Amino acid sequence: MVHFLSKPIPNATLQNERFTKQSGWHMWYLSPSLSEYFAVSGYNNDGRTFIDLFSRSNVHCTAKLKLLYSRKFGQHSGFYYRHVSCLEIYCNSVVTCIGREVEIIDMSNESPGLKFCRVDGETSALAVRGGDIFIGLRDAPIVIVFNNDLAKTKEIVLKGINDSCYAWDLSVLEDTIFVRTNDSRAFAIRESDGSILKQFADVTGKFLEAHTISASKTQELTAIVWSDKRIIVYPSTQKGSYLVIDVAYDVWRIRILDKEGMMMTGNYATGEIMIYDLEQLRHIGAMKTMWAHLLSFDQFEALKNYFGVTLEMSRIEMGDRSGSRSTNVETKIRKVECLLTVLREKGYPDPWNTLKTALPAVVGFDGLLASIMTREKEWEDEKHRLVYCLDNANLELEISTVNHDVAKTMAWERINNEKVQICRFLSKELAQEWKDVGRNIGLSDEALDHVEADSENREEANYKMLLQWARTNGSDATIEVLVQALKRANRKDLADFLEDGEGEMAKLRKLYTKEVEFVKQERERDRREFAKRIEKLEKELKDKNETQERMKENTPTETNTLTMKQVRNMKGFKNEKETMKEIPELTRIQSTNSIETPTEQLYHGKTESLKTLETAHRSKVLMKTPKAESPNQVL
Predict the structure, then answer these.
(1) Where in this chain does the record put each Death domain (predicted)?
(2) Which residue among 110, 172, 308, 434 is the one 20 to 30 A from 513 at the CA level?
(3) DSSP assignment of 327-396, as one string?
(4) DSSP letters of 406-436?
(5) What is the mean pLDDT of each run of 10 residues along the chain (635 residues)?
């Protein structure tokens, strides 16, 4: 499914003062870090280049950018295109390349760069992944990889791409390189051998050209700008929904902020940076698509007449440069957007709620209102963490515990409690055939292997597999799909159980009741076991204390007053050195329950009498020692 958005309002618009104070500046490269910074590079018409480092703490507000550090460079042999990327290894540092030169710069210091090297070709793109630096060359379809010391570690030849092409924009995610080439195509490239994993296509069918690309690890999606003003957000799975966004300005670079779930776009001419909340865009796109599917053209006319507004066709048409005709759904979406804009211009502060309140007054809109209210309730639930509570058992099921390498994709439809209960029930019932069931519901062998490797037992693997399927497919994850998958895996008993009953809700209530009863029994058993363990520990602690008290009472005090003389008489030692070695062992035997004896205190230097005792003993030994007969004799 494709969701369309037209000219969404950004969550933040950030203006670089450099572009407002002096003319002739252009943004060339944009690079957010994983932490709190993002860097912008560009050039002036007179040949100078710049790098600005900004704080990411204010990306959620509309304000001027907080400039942390800035660096200007003079003319560089006719090269304008300076690339930059934040380097996580060094604080406040960036890696930049221009022409054939690559340099790591500490932006907080005006001194020369930290490291410098030259490459065998003009640079065309730059990306950083951890401590690895990926640089595209303009002379050939080659990406060179450096470490953080700018030592070359690898050279990746992009296979399946014309020799005259090169990487114009780069984004690296785990072991995949996302490339936009100079011939306006976009690819996902395997890092190990440079082969093509996927070529991205314009899903709108208008044969647009790719312009810039970015991928996200946390969001598990890829964003591509097509022909400057159309952004397409691609899901990680084929069954996911595409988000098509038409903007009113030329997008020169696009980057995704992984942790925040935000999308950042940069304007080449004005230097403005627009920040969008991807989850919010996804919700708005889904809502407008739902309206377009539920509204007929006649119903839309009735709604428009109810408000007494006229929609100009020039505002509905998007000025598509391809000249192709829009689909009915896309046209109705644009009509809805135009109607919302007109209502906002007429002074309605919340056009969405205005439309919803008007629906009951329009004939035939009761079903539409119910659908809208249901979808918005699901959206409100989705905004919270995916934690579901079984009220009767007071048990929280936290979906975020699922391994993120397997089930990272946020569902575009809420997983309801009943689906979770089905997943939990089947996870206990499936055995060796669990992978067959997984394949039947559309999961790949690679995904199943990941689930198996990250699970401690079969039940956990079953649950993660089913939950991933439910989250990825949303409303398409139905009981009927599970029933057919179970039948093909020769588990007709489970399929019959899901089909049995008086209807779908009866099945779900049956599963829910069974699960609640099971949870109650488990909780009661855990409470009993916990009480037994506490009682046992208390008894052991009491016995230990009583034993220590008895040992203290039975310890004779006279055995704790060993002196060095007594030790020498007991063991027959002749000198002080041997006596001092033996004292710790004898006092250890005499002492009990970690209570130091006076002799131990003497040995550890805890009393003043030790020094007196040693002095007196040394004097007595020296008086009885004969003179040395040779210089080598040891006293």
Answers:
(1) 419-502
(2) 434
(3) PHHHHHHHHHHHHHHHHHHTT-S-HHHHHHHHGGGSTT-HHHHHHHHHHHHHHHHHHS-SEEEETTTTEE
(4) TS-SPPSSPPPHHHHHHHHHHHHH--TTHHH
(5) 76 84 87 82 87 74 71 77 79 86 85 83 89 90 91 91 89 89 89 87 74 77 79 77 82 84 88 86 76 70 76 48 48 74 76 71 59 56 37 30 32 46 78 86 83 79 82 74 86 78 52 60 72 77 80 60 54 53 52 46 46 50 44 36
Alpha-carbon span 31 to 350, nearest angstrom: 35
Nearest-angstrom CA–CA distance, 169 and 154: 19
Q: What is the rounded distance in angstroms from the CA atom of residue 205 to the CA atom of residue 323?
A: 11
- The total number of residues written for the chain in this structure: 635
Query: CB of 306 within 8 A of CB of 358?
Result: yes
The CA dihedral of 494, 424, 507, 408, to the nearest 10 degrees, is -110
Per 3-state DSSP, what percentage of the chain is helix, strand, and coil (rounded to 5)? 40, 25, 35
For the chain, the domains span: 287-382, 384-519, 559-623
Return the biggest CA–CA distance within the chain.
127
Determine if residue 553 is left, alpha or beta; phi over 0 gives left, psi from -120 to 50 gives alpha, anything else beta.
alpha
The set of residues, in sequence order, having a beta carbon less than 8 Å from that of 551 and lying 6+ positions away, is: 592, 593
* Bridge partners for 55 per DSSP: 37
Handedness of CA 357, 358, 364, 368 (dihedral sign): negative
The residues facing 115 across adjacent strands are: 104
Of 3.40.50.261, 1.10.533.10, 3.40.50.300, 2.40.480.10, the CATH number of 384-519 is 1.10.533.10
Task: Quote the CA–CA distance of 379 and 364 in Å, as a whole number.
Answer: 24
